[in-house]
Amino acid sequence: MTAGPRRVVTPSSVQEVAEQVLRAAQDGERVRMAGTGHSFTPVAATDGVLLLPGRLTGVRAVDPEAGTVTVEAGCPLRALNEALLARGLSLANMGDIQVQTVAGAVQTGTHGTGRDVGGMAAQVAGLELVLADGQLVTCTRELPGGGVTGSDGGDVNLLDAARVGLGALGVLTAVTFAVVPAFLLAAREEAMTWSQVISRLDEFTADNEHFEFYWFPHSEGCLTKRNNRTDGPASPLPRWRYLLDDEVLSNSLFGATCRIGKRAPAVIPTVNAIAAKALGARSYSDAAYRVFTSPRRVRFKEEEYAIPRAALSDVLAEVRALFRRRDWRISFPIEVRVTPPDEVWLSTAYGRDSAYIAIHVFHATAHEDYFRDVEAVMTSVGGRPHWGKMHTRDAAYLAEVYPRFGDFVALRDRLDPERRFGNDYLTRVLGP
Ligand SMILES: Cc1cc2nc3c(=O)[nH]c(=O)nc-3n(C[C@H](O)[C@H](O)[C@H](O)COP(=O)(O)OP(=O)(O)OC[C@H]3O[C@@H](n4cnc5c(N)ncnc54)[C@H](O)[C@@H]3O)c2cc1C
Prior knowledge:
Radius of gyration: 21 Å
Shape: globular
CATH architecture of the largest domain: 2-Layer Sandwich
Number of domains: 2
CATH class of the largest domain: Alpha Beta
Helix content: 25-40%
Strand content: 15-25%
Bound molecules: flavin-adenine dinucleotide
Number of strands: 18
Structural class: alpha+beta
């Protein structure tokens, strides 16, 4: 992410956020709040006032009986996970890393894999946000409109609109998550061949609470991950195994092979075939968030699409066929995940059982041809791009694949008619 803001402010209170929004309006500036900058798109960028999250990171309230936690918008996911575990609670599902802020993760629809529980936004039970006129509103599942009245005089469903809001409807100051009692996950990781995985896809996604797999391009090799609840006791990976697999093989050695692959692309198919086997079978169990997440230290570029779950096998076959037709040499495995439908207007899983296909290249490698051709396959089945990852879609396309897109844009027109929270990316994906 690159941004050229005129002013950078790190607010330490809700009031200060509201003051900054009003001051930006007086100065005729645009304003955006950023998270940790982990998006691959310029979704957080601004040429006006950039609000940084570093002093809005606290845990406000934990209510074990209601099963909710309210944290300030800039709270890093790791801090949230640790605070919850200390109180015997947990998020029910999450993505691959835990360095993002809660607001940043929620606003772009960050997700993991799950049969029963969806992404971060699906677990949001309430939001507090500052609107373009400086007004502070709170929306919950019980009072979805918060203080906002619709054009017909009734409540608008601000919670479902603003959960994945791309920062376009307001600056989030706090997020309330629905949480569950802390639980252990038993992880079972196993190498399989492509045909083994594809022939058993329905079984794996139905039988496991969290199933995902990685396919190593140019090879038959896949790494499957099945995570399910267990009563324990926890048996985490021994430190040496964690260091070998997650730090050395998945990061240090993988980074080195990416650099070699950049200089000598011809070696990539051989390296991928070896890598698929090197990350062999392992089983362990640990607190859920420690199983969901792992360190990612190799820099990369990423495109990810959500497609209808029913199309997954055909789409994967089509992507694999592309590799036969093109002379690409791709080091990074392709990641495949699933989630159930949710009701969040701009969530990639809105209203449909979804499968996610994520493709990556080493940060120093050209991505254009690969991302363009895979994107064409995804869009042929009504795919929805991850809002924080690279894609070339515009508002006209997105209006076709999101049934509530028009409602979102209409709400944006009313809440932010002057586009106080606008930026170039939002102009492309939401319209002027
Ligand atoms: C290594 C890596 C691994 C990843 N793994 C996954 C994964 O497993 N699953 C997945 O779905 N994604 C994944 N992502 C993508 C990542 O989760 C999203 O891009 C996420 O939005 C980044 O959060 P952030 O805190 O860095 O927010 P930023 O990228 O800084 O901002 C994202 C958006 O949130 C808005 N925003 C932030 N704070 C506020 C606020 N207070 N109020 C209003 N708007 C706000 C910003 O304006 C911007 O629009 C990964 C990214 C990386 C780099």
